[in-house]
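new request in #modeling-help
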Amino acid sequence: MRETQDVQPPSLRAIALCFAELGMRGFGGLASQVHEVLVVRRKWLDEADFAETLGLGQILPGGNVMNMAAMLGDRWRGWPGAVVALLALTVPSTFIAIAIFVAASTAASSPILTSVEQMVVVAASGALVATGLRALRAAHDPQRRALSARRIGTALLVVVLFAIPHAGLPVAFAVGLPLAILVEARAR
Amino acid sequence: MRAAGLSLFAVGGASATVPAIRAYVVGAGLVDAPTFARIFAWGQIAPGPNILYVPLVGYVLGGVAGALITLVAFVTPPALLSVSVDRFFRRRAHAPAIAVLRRAFRPIAGGVLLGSGLLLIATFSHGRPLPVAVAAATIAVVLAANVGVLWCLGGAAVVGLVAALIAH
């Protein structure tokens, strides 16, 4: 959301290629892949922008990464950018999901396949945890230890509330967001 | 289609929508419960956003056309809302209240990522030590070595293959 990038925003073609690639990646938890592609490799976003945009995408209804794609595409290239980013992200991967679903429905499940699936899912979840830890690291400001501690405390409270079955996410937002706003407002 | 209304349930990512969508789709007798469970599992495993299990429901109901209609209906309302909110925030980027709000999103994003990752690990490990070790190794490798996530997933797939071969 910062307008400090003096580099040219990516072209529509670059947006299409990038989000199509993201649609092909992201087995269970796309956010860590978005971080790798947009922040680490392409450097179209910095850590703080990533965390802010993802946080907004999570709080708004809809898929978090799809919301991110719409917002980022619009920032770079207006409505056409948003449409291109969303189509590139979702249409190819919808067809792949259909193909995989059809193939899986016809094949019998094997213990080897189940074991491989399980390991891939937990590793993808581990990558989500790592991305979350990175976002927390970005919230840490060595100049302001008390503020950093309050930020990290808020995030950990969100983690705990999230774990409550069924009520998890809405409660985490309802408590976490006002608390986070309070922490930032008092920091001024 | 009716998916448009459902998309607004999806506060906070794909997994949050599952109970609402399941209640709606199964309750209306569109898809039976075991089929829904299978659709959801494969939507998770397939690449791309996890929320794409929703167009898979559309596929089961109405083929490829059903999937595409569901996709468009499901994607459009949240996208319009996201872009509008984001534009509003950027227009007022220098207002102190907006700056505070934007910074407040960071710990929320971090907390939700951490929480959902841990919850998924707990759910899919089934109390076994090996999956927990694989998850822990992935966290360490991604954080410390900046190795691409896809390499970690490939490595995890190999571990799963070897573990299954040893066990059988």
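bot summary: Chain B touches chain A through 98 residues (CB under 8 Å).
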